[in-house]
Amino acid sequence: MSDENIHVLQPADWPRPKGYSNGMMARGRVVVVAGQVGWDNTGVFRSSTTAGQARQALENVVAVLAAGGAKPEHIMSMNWYVTDLDEYRSQRAEIGAHYRAIIGKHFPAMTLVQVAGLLERDARVEIEALAIVPD
């Protein structure tokens, strides 16, 4: 990270994780983003795939961050909830490309879990985030 108030936490004797960080530490103003699903600003799902909905959900996360004066590089942690882990795995390359296009090469602490379902019946993915805007 380029900001002196934001640090990746990586135990020295652990292998570097791929695509996320083991931990993050920062000082500043907290911005919490509730779970965002893959619908557009009118509440319409334009995609029925995990990859397509992940792209829109990430765009929604960035929109909420911007409303709080935060940027993608301020994200400290993300929790991803998917309804089909096999579909996520098969679309991982496309999801990764969407992630890099929207979030960049910033890899906060992340968790990914499969759930039986999400509140919005057509949702395939839901993403929540916590960001800290440095002092």
Identify the CATH homologous superfamily. Answer: RutC-like
Give the CATH architecture. 2-Layer Sandwich
Tell me, briefly, the overall form.
globular
CATH class assignment: Alpha Beta
Residue share in β-strands? 25-35%
Q: What would you call the structural class?
A: alpha+beta
Helix content: 25-40%
- Per the CATH scheme, the topology name is 60s Ribosomal Protein L30, Chain: A
Ends apart, CA distance between termini? 15 Å
Global Rg:
15 Å
Q: How do the SSEs run, as a string of H and E?
A: EEEHEHHEE
**Total individual domains:** 1
- Biggest sheet descriptor: 4 strands, mixed
In round numbers, the mean pLDDT is 94
Low-confidence stretches: none
Instruction: Trace the largest sheet across and list its strands.
Output: 3-6-4-5
Report on this structure.
With 135 residues, the protein is of the alpha+beta class. The protein has one domain (29-134): RutC-like (60s Ribosomal Protein L30, Chain: A, 2-Layer Sandwich), CATH 3.30.1330.40. It is built from 3 helices and 6 strands. A 4-stranded mixed β-sheet has the order 3-6-4-5. Helix 1 (50-67) runs parallel beside helix 3. It is globular and about 40 Å long. It starts with 5 loop residues before the first strand and ends with a strand.
